[in-house]
Write a sequence for this structure.
């Protein structure tokens, strides 16, 4: 009996830890794709939420670099000539649209702060004139991830995403291929509440 009670207590502690660690979705939070979320759009994706309310949600996938060279893809923006970072696939929506995240203590004039040190803006000449052309300070995204009213909430209820706190180090990580593996929770193991010797009786 003592062993049975101990198992129940351990299960309760694990549940309490789960609940206390849960994050509420909102701008500045990360959506980390669960292990069961498959498909080319979002498998192993890590998304920085930019907008979230009753009208819907949008964010940028921060761990999908592409082979696109910004200076070649955007020749009308000569300020990108010295930029050496890749373009990222921000999501499957509006892939002709280019958006930016800027890492700086103060936001550029045309940008909105998402978390401390990270600011979001559409890509244009005004932003580039006010931003350092360094991949550790500026990241460019083609398209974005978007959800209509209630869609993201339904996916969260199905367990498709883990919600976590974001940081500028995670969003601007130099090892983007490892970000999802660093963040994804370890597989859960069910705590047995069966008394030894009673299985099958």
């Amino acid at each position: 009996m003592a062993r049975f009670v101990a198992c129940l207590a351990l299960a309760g502690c694990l549940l309490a830890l789960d609940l206390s660690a849960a994050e509420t979705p909102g701008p500045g939070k990360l959506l980390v794709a669960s292990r069961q979320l498959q498909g080319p759009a979002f498998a192993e994706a890590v998304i920085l939420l930019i907008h979230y309310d009753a009208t819907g949600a949008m964010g940028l996938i921060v761990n999908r670099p592409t082979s696109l060279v910004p200076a070649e893809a955007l020749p009308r923006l000569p300020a990108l000539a010295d930029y050496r970072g890749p373009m990222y696939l921000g999501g499957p929506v509006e892939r002709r649209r280019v958006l930016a995240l800027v890492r700086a203590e103060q936001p550029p004039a045309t940008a909105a702060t998402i978390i401390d040190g990270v600011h979001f803006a559409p890509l244009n000449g005004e932003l580039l004139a006010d931003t350092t052309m360094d991949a550790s300070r500026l990241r460019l995204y083609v398209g974005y991830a978007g959800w209509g009213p209630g869609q993201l909430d339904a996916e969260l209820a199905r367990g498709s995403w883990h919600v976590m706190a974001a940081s500028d180090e995670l969003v601007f990580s130099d090892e983007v291929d490892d970000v999802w593996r660093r963040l994804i929770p370890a597989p859960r193991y069910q705590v047995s509440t069966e008394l030894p010797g009673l299985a099958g009786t």
Summary: Confidence is low (pLDDT under 50) at residues 1-21. Strands lie at 29-33, 46-53, 56-61, 87-89, 93-103, 112-115, 118-122, 138-147, 161-165. The CA atoms of residues 29 and 165 lie 5 Å apart. The chain has one domain: 21-183.
